[in-house]
Amino acid sequence: MSSPNTNLEKQKTRHAGPLSGMGAGLLFAGVLFVALIGWTVYQGGEPDGAEVQIDGRTGEASVVVTE
Q1: How many domains does the chain have?
Q2: Which residues, in sequence order, are CB contacts of 65 under 8 Å at separation 6+?
Q3: Which superkingdom is the protein from (predicted)?
Q4: Is the pTM of this model over 0.90?
């Protein structure tokens, strides 16, 4: 049940604002997602506070002495 007389040029101008707002929202969400991934990778370094740490490259265990 669509309208029999549609004016596409008129609809383009009426919907330009909401469509650009949705695009800006998607862009903002994408930037936040990339920032979350970057922060997660940055925080995933060496384990802290473990008495025995395993080197992921060699599999060698090392004992951490904390005084």
Answers
A1: 1
A2: none
A3: Bacteria
A4: no
Sign of the CA dihedral with 40 first, then 59, 50, and 62 last: negative
Domain that holds residue 46: 8-63
Separation of first and last alpha carbons in the chain: 78
Q: Cβ neighbours of residue 64 under 8 Å, at least 6 residues apart?
A: 50, 51, 52, 53
pLDDT by residue (tens digit) across 16-64?
999 999 999 999 999 999 999 999 988 887 666 667 777 788 888 887 7
Q: Which two tokens stand for residue 34?
A: 């990339």
